[in-house]
């Protein structure tokens, strides 16, 4: 059944590939750009640096992505892709592209431009919008222990008043019951119709805040407390290789247990589904291997009646993630990481200098609309990329 579903998803792209003259990848380029921003703006969280990928084809069509790898990967990428069939995405993944999801985005951008269609439509998607939620991380200590509760409450109110329906924050404080108290205060301020998610991020507090990975009893205690306080989900409460503990927790609580951002390819997600590890799978739009791999994870999840909601990103990089989300038909799209008190449009304002469009994404009344332009939906200005390219 899964194989048949994947075949149906890929049929439009394969039909297109057979209907046109074979398109070859003429060259690949990866380079950094630095956009105008003051030191104060950068310190406040404004995005001004991106890794650009260009996939140049022998048709004269260029695909772009702003979620590229280090320039050090360029020789391997050129060996892997130059002279190859643009449309052979599956073969590229098998040849090593799985490790470079942002490059795969640029390939899809070129394919979509040739087809004159947004990528999500080529992969069978029919949704025309999705609800974005904002993930907030305050400057300073990674565990957020320096952030007054009232500041987190105020940001939640600000986000709700801007029309958004959801927000995510970390559950990293040394005493997780402090984060539970924040949840109570936020929910009291925003009401039941605003969704509040919490992220433990598996091993990250070990590396960034000198904490321990939770044991099962701690995870259960926090999950039950967050559930009582009105939280919507708890993300990655345990180590990523541990499929059993999240499954045990998910069976014991009503709050949704989610995860998957650290997995590449489909095998780990298959294990999650077989073990009933998570209520929601969260592949990363780049880390999982790119748009097609995320679409595969969505098909796998659907076969097990499990939701698939991508782990997110921000600004120009979000274009590829959004195409994957729309192809799956997910309920939510994470926009991350937001640095309070900035809102998304403020944080990605410098990026408008490399686009020939009035807005990067259309967000109205808490809804993120599907792009109508072909490919990833960004109308890139090549001259501006050349202007802001970082030498080297």
Describe the structure.
- The chain has 392 residues and is of the alpha/beta class.
- Helices cover 40% and strands 16% of the residues.
- It has 16 helices and 13 strands.
- Strands 4, 5, 6, 7, 8, 9, 10, 11, 12 and 13 form a ten-stranded mixed sheet that branches. Strands 1-2-3 form a three-stranded antiparallel sheet, with helices on both faces.
- Helix 13 runs parallel beside helix 14.
- The protein is globular and about 60 Å long.
The residue ranges in which pLDDT falls below 50 over 5 or more consecutive positions are none
* Assembly annotation: single chain
Taking the alpha carbons of the first and last residues, their distance comes to 49 Å
Average pLDDT, all residues: 96
Spell out the helices and strands N to C.
HEHEEHHHHEHEHEHHEHEHEHEHEHEEH
The helix content is: 40-55%
Quick recap of the structure?
The protein has 392 residues and is of the alpha/beta class. It is 40% helix and 16% strand. The strands form two sheets. Strands 4, 5, 6, 7, 8, 9, 10, 11, 12 and 13 form a ten-stranded mixed sheet that branches.
């Amino acid at each position: 059944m899964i194989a048949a579903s994947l075949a149906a998803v890929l049929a439009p792209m394969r039909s297109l590939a057979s209907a046109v003259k074979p398109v070859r990848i003429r060259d690949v380029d990866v380079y950094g750009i630095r956009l105008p921003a003051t030191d104060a703006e950068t310190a406040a969280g404004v995005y001004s640096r991106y890794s650009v990928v260009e996939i140049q084809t022998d048709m004269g069509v260029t695909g772009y992505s702003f979620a590229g790898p280090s320039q050090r990967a360029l020789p391997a990428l050129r060996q892997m892709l130059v002279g190859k069939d643009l449309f052979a995405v599956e073969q590229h993944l098998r040849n090593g592209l799985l490790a470079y999801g942002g490059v795969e985005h640029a390939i899809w951008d070129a394919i979509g431009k040739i087809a004159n269609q947004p990528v999500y439509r080529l992969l069978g998607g029919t949704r025309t919008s999705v609800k974005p939620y904002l993930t907030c991380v305050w400057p300073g200590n990674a565990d957020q222990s320096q952030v007054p509760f009232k500041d987190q409450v105020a940001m939640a109110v600000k986000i709700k008043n801007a029309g958004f329906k959801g927000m995510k924050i970390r559950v990293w404080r040394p005493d997780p019951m402090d984060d539970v108290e924040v949840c109570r205060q936020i929910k009291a301020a925003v009401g039941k119709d605003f969704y509040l998610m919490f992220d433990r991020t598996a091993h990250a507090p070990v590396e960034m805040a000198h904490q321990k990975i939770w044991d099962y009893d701690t995870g259960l205690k926090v999950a039950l407390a967050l559930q009582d306080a009105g939280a919507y989900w708890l993300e990655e409460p345990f180590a990523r290789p541990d499929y059993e503990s999240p499954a045990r927790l998910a069976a014991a609580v009503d709050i949704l247990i989610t995860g998957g951002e650290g997995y590449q390819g489909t095998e780990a997600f298959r294990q999650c589904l077989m073990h009933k590890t998570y209520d929601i799978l969260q592949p990363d739009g780049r880390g999982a291997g790119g748009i097609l791999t995320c679409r595969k994870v969505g098909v796998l999840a659907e076969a097990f009646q499990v939701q698939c909601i991508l782990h997110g990103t921000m600004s120009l990089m979000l274009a590829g993630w959004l195409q994957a989300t729309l192809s799956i038909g997910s309920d939510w799209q994470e926009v991350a990481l937001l640095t309070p008190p900035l809102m998304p449009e403020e944080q990605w304002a410098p990026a408008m200098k490399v686009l020939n469009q009035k807005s990067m994404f259309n967000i109205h009344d808490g809804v993120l609309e599907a792009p109508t332009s072909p490919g990833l939906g960004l109308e890139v200005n090549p001259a501006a990329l050349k202007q802001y390219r970082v030498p080297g």
